[in-house]
Design a protein that fits this description.
globular; single chain; four-stranded mixed sheet
């Protein structure tokens, strides 16, 4: 399982102009065919973009928050 803290993708404030850099780094960190947990302080647009970029690459994607706990975004595990 890979935990991807989106807050670590940027310093200070996320910038939409840097989105492609954030996505490249997130895809690299997530790897191929893993279960991935997205967490950390980040704007909603970054969460949505990373989730979209990982669809088809991650086996399972989970959003983790202290408020909601774990929320499954998608699960492509056949078992």
């Amino acid at each position: 399982m890979t935990v991807l803290d989106l807050e670590r993708l940027f310093s200070d404030t996320a910038k939409l102009a840097e989105l492609s850099v954030y996505l490249d780094h997130a895809v690299e960190l997530a790897g191929e065919g893993h279960e991935v947990i997205l967490t950390g302080r980040a704007p909603v647009w970054l969460y949505l973009a990373v989730a979209h970029a990982l669809h088809g690459k991650a086996k399972k994607l989970i959003y983790r928050s202290p408020v909601t706990g774990d929320v499954i975004i998608f699960d492509h595990d056949p078992f």
